[in-house]
Every structure is written in C-alpha cells, then in structure tokens.
Amino acid sequence: MTSTSAPYRSPLLDRPGAAESQDADVVDAAGVAWHYGDPLGEQRAAHDGGIVVDRSHRRVLKVSGPDSAGFLNNLLSQKVDDAPDGFAASALDLDIQGHILHHADLVRVGGDFYLDLPDAQAVTFADFLRRMIFWSQVEVDDTDLAVLTLLGPALVDAPADRGVPTLAARTVGWGGIARRDLLVERADLPAAVDALVNGGATLAGLMAFTAERVRALEPELAADLDDRSIPHEVPAWIGRGDHAGAVHLEKGCYRGQETVARVENLGRSPRLLVMLQLDGSAPETPTPGTAITATGGGRAVGRLGTVVHDCDFGPVALALVKRSALGGQLLIGEVAAMVDPSSIPTEEGEKAGRAAINRLKGL
C-alpha cells in the first residue's frame, strides 16, 4: 500500500456483520471493521478465550541494509543497535524540543527492521528516514504487509498462529491483556484469519482492540496526544527494567534526548495520560479533542482523547490531564468524568538530578 493508492479497504469488511467506525477521522480506524455485529461481546471474548483483530490498515515499513541497526539507533528513542533477532518494542521520533512526531511499533527479523504505524504518519516518517540515510548502507521500503493482533492469554500464552504464514510475530509488553502481533502478507490475510479462527480465535473488530488499548493506557498519537506532548506524559512509554517501552533511558544521543533526560532526572511532566470513567447516563458521548475542565472553576485542565465503550466499565476515555487536577471531579462539556485511580502511576520518589542539586545546595 503506497501513499498514492486508493484508500485502503480490508477484505474482511466483506465478512458477515462487519461495520466500519463512524469516527474513523478521529481514531485511526478507516478501512477495517470496527465490529462484526457484537462489539461488547467481541471484547468480552478476548478475556473468555481470545480474539483476532484486523489492523491491516496500518502501514508497515522495512528498514534493511548492513547499517540499519545503527541508523535507527541514532534517530529513534529506542535502543536497537544491539537488538537480537525477534526484538520487539515501540520507538518514537522526536523533534529537537522533545515533542513526539511519530510513534511506531517495531520488530527485528534477522538483519531487517519492520516498523508499523498509522497510514497518516507513514509518509512523513518514511520521508524523514530516507532524508537521513546520507552515506549509510540502508534502504527504507514500503511493504505490502498487514498487522493482525491476537488478544487474550488463551491465544498468546499458547500461540494459535502456528501454521499461519507470518513474516514475524511479536509479543507486545503493554499494560493490558496479553497481546501478540502478527505480520502477514496482505494476500494471505483472509486465509490467515480463517486459520486463526479455526484454531480457536474469535474474529473481533477494532473497537474491542481500542477498548483494551484504553485500559492499557496506550495512546494513539493523533487522537490522544498533541503537538506539545513529550514522552514522559505516557509513563508506559518509558523503558524501565525488563519493560522496553518506547524510550530507552541509557542509550546514546538522538534528537530530543535532552528533554527526556531533563524530565527523567530533574522533574515531572506537567500532564499525564490517564483513563477517565465517563458518566454513562449522558445523552451524548463527548468527542476526542474536547477540552476538559475542573468542576466549580471551569478552568481547562486537559484534553480528551480516544472515547470508547468498554464491556466492563461502560464509556471510558484516554485523556491528557494536568497533575494538579488528577484527584478532582472533571467535566467534558456537560459530561461528568473522573480519573480512574489505577491509571495514575506510582511516584518513584525524588529524581536523581534533583537530589544532587539539593545536596549541592545543602538542603
């Protein structure tokens, strides 16, 4: 799929009950099924047995060549120069001020790297990579690969993709239900899904994945963040211990690293990505991008991101909220909301850089 091709339409949209999202211009959902007739039941099936979700609308880029590992390591927030075959994580492209420009999921297959991201980001990301090649022995190519996502421990812990013709499979370490992504040739997409369904998976739409994405506090760049967003606003993106995240805190220099290091060592991001519980009795669901205000004063304290109905919690959303407003009652237009307490990260204590400064000051 190239940038000059017609809008993508998955062949799975011809399956019985398939319905597209009505908000595909906000959340990245155009071209695939939002559900197959039972959206809440499809999400429930992820916990009861396991589901396969068509995410073939994403673009997959291939970065290859003898210098590909060092090339990507110099440009992105993830450490990949010594990544082993099969390494899977996320990576960010930042501007010089540390603001997030692109977010991609990646996996290494032999000496090659495959990076997938929303179609709307893919053209500018590929252009950026190609402009930075200079004398490196690297090639950046579009592929005709599709992403399928398996959700549910029944499928991920005992992989049901054996026998499915996959180029790569990656187990994704995020804060939600067990997840495994498969990269398959687009021509093999229907057959791959049939094989997975025959192996015990339930075919589910992107709404089920989106609800689990909100639970996992995994943002989608266009819907959930803005042009001021920095990596530390998404705590799950900061790699710590065995969690690779999207940002490696001990790798070499890359564009935007100064902001990452400063926030990590000296302070905190002024905003956090959290999950909101929305008033389910409201007549209308608020739309992403709407300002969030504090009750009583009416001052803006954040912005709303992805909104979706969850099979357990009802209407939920991702939102960027000022730290000072995390414990209060919130309003989104006329809809009441509150921050889910479990989405607020545990404080990690005094920052190392700040402690050193205080020692020098004799505090």
From TrEMBL:
InterPro entries (UniProt xref): CAF17_C, TrmE/GcvT-like, YgfZ/GCV_T_CS, YgfZ/GcvT
Residue stretches making up the CAF17 C-terminal domain: 273-340
Domain of life: Bacteria
Stretch list, region Disordered: 1-21
Pfam families per record: Beta-barrel_CAF17_C
Keywords per UniProt: Transit peptide
The keyword ATP-binding is assigned to this record: no
Statement: the UniProt record of this protein carries the keyword Transit peptide: yes
Stated name of the protein: Folate-binding protein
Organism the protein comes from: Corynebacterium suedekumii
